Records
---
Amino acid sequence: MAKSRTFRKTRRTRRVSLRRLVDFLILAVVLWLVLILAGRFLRQVAIAQIAELTNAKIKAKKIDFKFDGSVSIEKLVIRPEQREKYDAAILKAEKVYARFDIGSLLLVRPRLREITVNDFVFDARYDSDTGQWNTAGLKFKVAKGGAGKMPVVRLERGTLQYSRVSNARVKVATQIPIDARFGPAEEEPGAYSFRITTAEMAKAVKSTLKGLWRPGRITIAGGISSASVPAFERTWDIKVIAAQLSYEPNNTYSMELRIKDFLGSRGTDGDTFAFDKPSFLEGWSAFSTLQRFFARYRPAGQIDIGLTASGNLERLSGSKFEGKVYCKDVSICDRKFPYPVEHIVGDLDFTENSVTLNNLSGEHNDVNVTFNGFSKDFGPNWQYEIRIKSDNM
């Protein structure tokens, strides 16, 4: 009898263990299926939220979901919504890591918390055939599933390039290696802070810009140098730059800009800019006049600049602005008449169609000279009157 009871108890224990093992296997299979489905779902959510964040089309070669709540994306491409005859990609990245907020996963409202983009090329391209930028439709906004929060975005080991299309042919004008970080601003709720730096290069000064963005306003501060931009024929450094841009949904804008200690070197015999004139300056005759002035007189030295501007972001060449240039120590030398004037100090006022010289003073060896006058209505109706005076010539 005792053996029979022991045998029945052993069989019952085995059945319970077997049932538990079967239940565990079923649960494991269910969890495995859930994870597969969740992974597929979250891969689609990640791409959808990036597309909604940038208002652009997203394509990727491979997307993998990891159990730590992150998604790995290979060969990510961001393109404008409109179709083009050529590859109009805005951004191409070798590798992208996107991490979801764990709390949002538990609430079944997945939200991207971090996006890291590695080895990328951001191409700002202007099509002179159509008059359109490939970035025209690129608008950063909070995804609907994002609970009103934008993710932290890190851009690492990347290149910012400006290119142009003419007769359906693409020409890369300049490239700048950059790193950047964008994220919610702790000091101002609802705002977004950013920091952009040029990558370290041999014989190049590292440029840094940091700022704050919120819908309708952007503020920027930092210092920049042309040393890392090969498109510029003459080198220059800006020690301090501060700007605030306010804009409306209809693209009207106003801007205040302050530059302190702008240091410029004298260029070589080439043109002021080695690349094509920026498209938004086409039709603005003042820029052509400025280019001719730099090419002929080769100014160099140190200045400060104050500027206010207003207009429409879609028609920048029609902007209105006024400002002042404070010459601290400037030199000029006419290519056609090599009579250098050095140590120029004083200020000049300018608008979009005029420049006024306010008693600028300089030296040519032992000769002291002063400059007064104006230049206005740049273009075919150009008018000017420059008065040069010296008491010891």
---
Amino acid sequence: MTSTTTRRVFFAACAAAGLLAASCDAGDRPPPAAARRELTAQWQDVFDGTPELYAVVRPQAIKRDQVYGALFKALVRVAQARTEMRGVTSLEAMEGCEEIVIGIRKDAQGEDAAIVFRGVPASLDPSKMTDASGRQILRLIDGRAKTQEFEWRDRRNTEAGSMFVLPDRTWVGAMGEARARARQAFASPFGRPAPKSDPEALASVRLDAASFFSSARFQKSAIVGPLTRKLRALTISLRPGKTGLVTTLEYQDEDASAWAEMHVKRVIEELAQIEPRPGRPNLSWLKGAVVGHEGSAVTVKVAVPPRLLEELPNATGGDLPL
């Protein structure tokens, strides 16, 4: 073997040994720690779980809807005509945002509430909200805080509450214990997941059964009473267009939901057969209701009655009993 060949073999062996040593050494060391992502203030941290009443409304989706759009716009016009606020108003924020979330807690300690406006138009400024006389309604508490907090200037006619403005065009109004939670959460975000809601619904509301259906009035009702046994929650969703309403009853187990399904079918059949007369609505459209059962949940889907399909797209302010 020539000296040149010998040197090449030597260098190749050294290179291989170096690569082997490097790979072994890398295997012994733990991988570098991923950079910790800093949590930012997010609206769902105002809730410490799913509130007993949890509602979601999507104004822009409703305005675009061929069935409900006209009615929604008529409601907004009536509300605008009756409000005493001037300049930027909460109504303007509600009508212009992408989503409204409402959460109300009901427990032994009392009630607290929060309302969230998501996707508020960037042109709106809460500091410019004024009353009929042009006086500012809100004042900024601390301009140095990471999250702006406003409170009502006139505390005589308003509950103790604050409005927080988050960086992503989200306004959070909080009252009672919700305000204390919001202050803590927005200063030191928890990163909670948002409570679940129907992503396809124009609007939905979820009611906790123990908080809303445990009274004797419901328990003793021949129609509602049997449905409250082992009921966890009731959710009503308004779907786009002709789809109508979807009601979901969540139960503690499948046996309870199976029994409830039979009761719902029987009740709907009886209601649909009631003869209409003056002062009593015609419920024959309930014949088209579809009752389903999946796991521990019962669903009832009811399409929009034909008469409403004709009238709602042409709704005006004069049609509203306000």
---
Amino acid sequence: MLRPKIYALSVALSVALFAPQVGMAQTNDTSSDAESAETDEAATQPLTIERRTNQRTSFNEGLAQFNEFIMQGQLGEAIAFLRPDIELGQDEIATLDAQLTELYSDVFTGQDTVRSESLKGGFRQEMLAYWTDKGEYFYVYVLMHSQNDSRRVLHIEYNTEFHSVFSLF
């Protein structure tokens, strides 16, 4: 039985892809207000040269969080995670979650990166796959660009058909 396709989402973003959500930095009670302000400012700045070595770690941590959302059937939360600068309403998040739940009544039991490719000029593309024990698959494509020590999402697509996503490479 053929499953209906989930629509593709394509947006330009100016946020770091998969960067962990950063809240206010915690400081101990003995720090001065100036030290606290410096710590808070550093915690909310985009990736800088000094933090470049942590860029891959941040990517991997964020990818793990994104995978967790998808594995739990929370497509809305996963998309909101990738685009924190664009506020999705609770109705929009619920609609995205419902789409995924409607297509996949069983929970996802596995996930992996199908293809990951570094392109010229700081561009990179990733294809992620998620599956159920029934052999149902969900695919996500992400195109990103690294520039000035930050990584931006340029294009996101997701679909139930392998070739629809794989053909983007």
